[in-house]
Write a structure and sequence with these properties.
The complex is a heterodimer of chains A (257) and B (110). With 257 residues, chain A is of the alpha+beta class. Chain A is 43% helix and 25% strand. The chains are: A alpha+beta (257), B alpha+beta (110).
Chain lengths: 257, 110
């Protein structure tokens, strides 16, 4: 488990009000102080604005994500900041359902501080983390790609470059938008399933055609549309999509990335 | 470029030094191809399918495949598709090539 724990440092289930039900790594005698502290942050966030199902607080070295979907308890994940919230949210949805299959809200409300009842679930949780890690994050050659901040800033110095996305074959998408992108229609397009599907479909078909007609493996594609240029390149197990207003912006971005 | 027929348009564009191969599709069948690959019909149909699946009104006009040394460029016009394989990654005689492409599309159904 050591390797997986590097990315997800801990998962805690906390009863509404701040009493720790259990923590994956075990907090010993500090558990009450930590869970009260986390409860206080949650309450404070609630005061600031409406608290959704998931909310994250970024600290310097890691992120605390709150998953609040149930009246009786909430889940906290402490993880490295590079895990996209969209992916984490799916994972927390899953473990929340698994937890509720074993323990009803009523059991949690009437809980008598006997932590041993959670032991079977903790074992299950460890397996779930391992599966999640294998699927999305942690095997060395399938690391979720994240653009280095310096490189991102350098790329977006080109005002004609509007967005950079990473699209995985299992439909996970991450997008970095240039602050310059004001076109609402284009923003909607980039966040739509059409965009993801376009990149995957064109990426796969053009890769096949390029292999046949250019007899090459290392390919990239540039599509000119009515409003913008779209660049696509396959890198390992994901497709890189770049949207720009200018042909050379796309070409230069491919050279830099 | 003065062009009198589809055949003439193909001949003239094929003479441009940076053009290695060319194929033309009229939305139904391959009208001309000097690519070694025998099933250009399938290539064009898969491009058509991919473009039909784009959805949204992005209106694809041109499509390029690069490998760093050579360029494969698809020109699209009312369901007609023309693909050119260039000997370099960058087009030098852009204006002459665009004239040739327009001429081919003009005569494609004659």
């Amino acid at each position: 488990m050591d390797f997986e724990i590097k990315k997800i440092k801990d998962i805690m289930f906390i009863k509404q009000g701040g009493i720790l039900l259990f923590s994956l790594i075990g907090l010993g005698d500090k558990s009450d102080i930590i869970s009260s502290f986390l409860e206080a942050i949650k309450s404070f966030s609630y005061e600031l604005d409406e608290f959704g199902e998931i909310r994250s607080i970024n600290l310097s070295k890691f992120t605390i994500s709150y998953y609040c979907k149930n009246p009786a308890f909430y889940i906290i994940a402490i993880h490295e900041s590079e895990i996209p919230l969209q992916i984490l949210s799916k994972f927390l949805d899953k473990i929340n359902s698994k937890f509720l299959e074993r323990y009803s809200e009523e059991v949690i409300i009437k809980w008598d501080h006997n932590t041993s009842i959670f032991e079977p679930f903790i074992e299950q949780l460890k397996n779930e983390i391992q599966d999640f890690s294998k699927k999305y994050l942690l095997t060395p050659n399938k690391l979720i790609y994240k653009l280095d901040n310096q490189l991102k800033n350098r790329l977006f110095e080109d005002k004609q470059l509007l967005a950079i996305s990473y699209i995985y074959e299992d439909n996970v998408i991450q997008t970095e938008l240039n602050n310059n992108l004001k076109d609402y229609e284009l923003q909607v397009y980039i966040s739509s399933p059409y965009y993801r599907r376009t990149i995957l479909n064109l990426g796969q078909i053009l890769t096949s055609i390029g292999k046949i007609l250019l007899k090459s493996q290392n390919l990239h594609f540039i599509i000119k549309s009515r409003k913008f240029y779209l660049g696509i390149k396959q890198i390992k197990d994901f497709y890189l999509g770049i949207i720009g207003l200018d042909y050379n912006s796309i070409k230069n971005a491919f050279i830099k990335i | 470029m003065i062009v009198k027929s589809f055949k003439d348009a193909i001949k003239q564009i094929s003479n441009i030094i940076e053009i290695e191969k060319i194929a033309v599709y009229n939305g139904n069948k391959v009208k001309f191809s000097n690519f070694e690959h025998k099933e250009m019909n399938k290539i064009f149909r898969s491009i058509e399918t991919a473009l039909n699946n784009i959805g949204f009104d992005i209106e694809c006009q041109e499509l390029e495949i690069h490998n760093g040394n050579k360029l494969l460029k698809f020109f699209l016009n009312n369901g007609n598709i023309l693909v050119i394989k260039f000997t370099t990654d960058q087009i030098i005689n852009k204006m002459i090539i665009n004239d040739g492409v327009s001429a081919i599309f003009q005569f494609i159904n004659t």
